[in-house]
Amino acid sequence: MVRGRKIEIVSFLLLQIVVAATAANVTYDHRALVIDGKRKILISGSIHYPRSTPEMWPDLIQKSKDGGLDVIETYVFWNGHEPHKNKYNFEGRYDLVKFVKLVAKAGLYVHLRIGPYACAEWNYGGFPVWLHFIPGIKFRTDNEPFKAEMQRFTAKIVDLMKQERLYASQGGPIILSQVENEYGNVDSSYGAAGKIYMKWSASMALSLDTGVPWNMCQQGDAPDPIINTCNGFYCDQFTPNSNNKPKMWTENWSGWFLGFGDPTPYRPVEDLAFAVAIFYQRSGTFQNYYMYHGGTNFERTSGGPLISTSYDYDAPIDEYGLVREPKWGHLRDLHKAIKLCEDALLATDPTVTSLGSNLVASEYKTSSGSCAAFLANIGTESDATVTFNGNSYHLPAWSISILPDCKNVAFNTAKINAATESTTFARQALKPNADSSEELGSQWSYIKEPIGISKADAFVKPGLLEQINTTADESDYLWYSLRMDIKGDETFLDEGSKAVLHVQSIGQVVYAFINGKLAGSGNGKQKISLDIPINLVTGKNTIDLLSVTVGLANYGAFFDLIGAGITGPVTLKSAKSGSSIDLSSQQWTYQVGLKGEDTDLGSGDSSEWVSKSPLPTMQPLIWYKTTFDAPSGSDPVAIDFTGTGKGIAWVNGQSIGRYWPTSIARNDGCTDSCNYRGSYSSNKCLKNCGKPSQTLYHVPRSWIKPSGNTLVLLEEMGGDPTKISFATKQTGSGLCLTVSQSHPAPVDSWASDSKILNRTSPVLSLKCPVSTHVITSINFASFGTPTGTCGSFSHGRCNSPRSLSIVRKACVGSRSCKVEVSTRVFGDPCRSLAKSLAVEASCS
Ligand code: GAL
């Protein structure tokens, strides 16, 4: 006993020593965050832990580290952690402590954005909806009930992190915390109370004594010592609000989010790299990719409204956890080049010189003589050749060259040395079970959800109710039901008891049923106005309106009060005479949620599933169930919902989110090839116009067993579930790259002391992404003036006839290969022309 106690004390002391030894002192000065007395250049990326699974986290974090990140940034998601007041959840995808510890284990830092307002295209911006029902509460302003809750939750998170010794001051990875989020964008709408609240947020945060700095983003007047940081597609023009604060960028949008009904945004990596490079060129020292891995809005976590289930974001790591090339690789090269400049960047402020119109050089020098330079061409039209320190450099339009020794170029933002990898979705015919020869789809069972009121807790109220106040967001669904007697002589009727039902809703989907039959539907973000021709009968009639939310608003002043649902008017009118009757203030019967939600049909466990054929299809409100075996292999899995309408899906009881393949992207604004030159905006580069916004839905591998899996769908509008297919996302069957003679040599040709090693010619280097693969064929190779892009390369006027055989010889049979891009290797097929080498290879 005594001995045990001694060991306990000794190990406690040892732990203290270890903690004391590894505890870091994090402060800042006007140039950078300062960790243990040393200024740091930090490269950060956002990964939101509930948008992937704990099983995915280690790989995502490792890929972030391999991509050159130092810091992982995440919000804390209040409504995930406290779904009901005082009932906490820190398990599974919400195991924040585990996530932070995994980041620490990989040797990376954490920026914890506690908020607790997040925004983030997350349901209700991360606020739990129960907060809205606290008497007297007003969100994000000088309001006691709100401040009490915000302080309680913020303190709860800080305490949890402290208990686990996760702050850097305790030896943990957290070097920075954020309070609030972009409040400066909206605070004027809250008047004087907004300012009081902002200052209160700052001092409340500071009082929690984390031992590391706090930041507020987009808050130009953030009080000292809180660091005000910038969010945007570019932040090179940003200056912090005090000469003692470093220039920090908390959200560099690596792409943009997708909405149902919208085309898919993408951001060319040349522009993203340009934005990063010019930020460090102009004295920035911390930037964060929002997102580095976007992930998936599982369950009902997406905000918006109308944010899609995929939160891929065109991020360097895709929704499924695979690196997106050449984005990931080009940024990795950029990070290496920036890190080669770290000592010089941090030593001083730069000397800035103009090299001509739109051409700027920034030179950083240490007292011991190291020198790093950034050369920028911020013109959007023409490439330039500049002279710097007596040497000549080619600068493509809208690009930055990085010279870690002020002489040799290690990187140019517009010259990509990372190969494009093809990724494909491979269809898999799934068997309902191992012994079956049938394919998935032959064994579906179903349960019909009653149309209209079916639950005992339905209630009657006069007038039309706002939806969120009624459902408290416990479900997407709210029934508004009305019975009415029709005599046949009403003035709003046309002959044959025809009429027009007019319904107005503030979002997001309405289905109108007349006497149990679907008569019409519509959807919209904040306004739906339907005029549906209907047939009534003499005698009793039922009007059942099903209103459906698709994520609650998450951004803007007073977003919490935007509301949803059928707020009216609801009228019946004659198409001919225009005579009408307003039903809005009638006695409506309400039902929150669906019967099948109450009985947890999503789990698949019910005994009521019907397997009689034929399977009813293309009818609204049916629950479907089937079983399936895991797709073979270990590649990430998606379900292709083409053929279905809209609903929610569960795999083995886990909700994979809302599916809506019939939501079609608007048909304008897309471009096949987006010019990366010039300022980016969220609608500059769009693809997928006129097609379903999202057909593929991620099912994390860890949610699938080898066999006997259950898939349940709640189909709202009518569809055919037998059309569903599974797909696995595969990477690396094809590799493409074009490297010109003016490309810098790979950044790997630099030693860590910022000295360039001997080789100075550009090199085309290929590597099969899958470790067991080798390059099996070279489908195209041309040194000269090749044209086209991956998959459609062709020879130009100038081509070295030896191209294919040289590249084949160097590459086929190996996992990776390097080929020098020079006339020394290929000969010179056309003396006066600038040449490049384009290669398309296959791996397997
Ligand atoms: C920012 C916000 C983020 C996210 C982003 C868009 O304004 O801070 O949380 O919503 O916009 O993806």
TrEMBL record:
<dbReference type="InterPro" id="IPR041392">
    <property type="entry name" value="GHD"/>
</dbReference>
<dbReference type="InterPro" id="IPR048913">
    <property type="entry name" value="BetaGal_gal-bd"/>
</dbReference>
<dbReference type="InterPro" id="IPR000922">
    <property type="entry name" value="Lectin_gal-bd_dom"/>
</dbReference>
<dbReference type="GO" id="GO:0009505">
    <property type="term" value="C:plant-type cell wall"/>
</dbReference>
<dbReference type="InterPro" id="IPR017853">
    <property type="entry name" value="GH"/>
</dbReference>
<dbReference type="GO" id="GO:0009827">
    <property type="term" value="P:plant-type cell wall modification"/>
</dbReference>
<keyword id="KW-0964">Secreted</keyword>
<keyword id="KW-0052">Apoplast</keyword>
<dbReference type="Pfam" id="PF21467">
    <property type="entry name" value="BetaGal_gal-bd"/>
</dbReference>
<dbReference type="Pfam" id="PF02140">
    <property type="entry name" value="SUEL_Lectin"/>
</dbReference>
<protein>
    <recommendedName>
        <fullName>Beta-galactosidase</fullName>
        <ecNumber>3.2.1.23</ecNumber>
    </recommendedName>
</protein>
<dbReference type="InterPro" id="IPR008979">
    <property type="entry name" value="Galactose-bd-like_sf"/>
</dbReference>
<dbReference type="Pfam" id="PF01301">
    <property type="entry name" value="Glyco_hydro_35"/>
</dbReference>
<dbReference type="GO" id="GO:0048046">
    <property type="term" value="C:apoplast"/>
</dbReference>
<keyword id="KW-0326">Glycosidase</keyword>
<dbReference type="InterPro" id="IPR031330">
    <property type="entry name" value="Gly_Hdrlase_35_cat"/>
</dbReference>
<dbReference type="GO" id="GO:0019388">
    <property type="term" value="P:galactose catabolic process"/>
</dbReference>
<dbReference type="InterPro" id="IPR043159">
    <property type="entry name" value="Lectin_gal-bd_sf"/>
</dbReference>
<keyword id="KW-0732">Signal</keyword>
<feature type="signal peptide">
    <location>
        <begin position="1"/>
        <end position="23"/>
    </location>
</feature>
<dbReference type="InterPro" id="IPR001944">
    <property type="entry name" value="Glycoside_Hdrlase_35"/>
</dbReference>
<dbReference type="GO" id="GO:0004565">
    <property type="term" value="F:beta-galactosidase activity"/>
</dbReference>
<feature type="domain" description="SUEL-type lectin">
    <location>
        <begin position="758"/>
        <end position="844"/>
    </location>
</feature>
<dbReference type="Pfam" id="PF17834">
    <property type="entry name" value="GHD"/>
</dbReference>
<dbReference type="GO" id="GO:0030246">
    <property type="term" value="F:carbohydrate binding"/>
</dbReference>
<dbReference type="GO" id="GO:0005773">
    <property type="term" value="C:vacuole"/>
</dbReference>
<keyword id="KW-0378">Hydrolase</keyword>
<dbReference type="InterPro" id="IPR019801">
    <property type="entry name" value="Glyco_hydro_35_CS"/>
</dbReference>
<comment type="similarity">
    <text>Belongs to the glycosyl hydrolase 35 family.</text>
</comment>
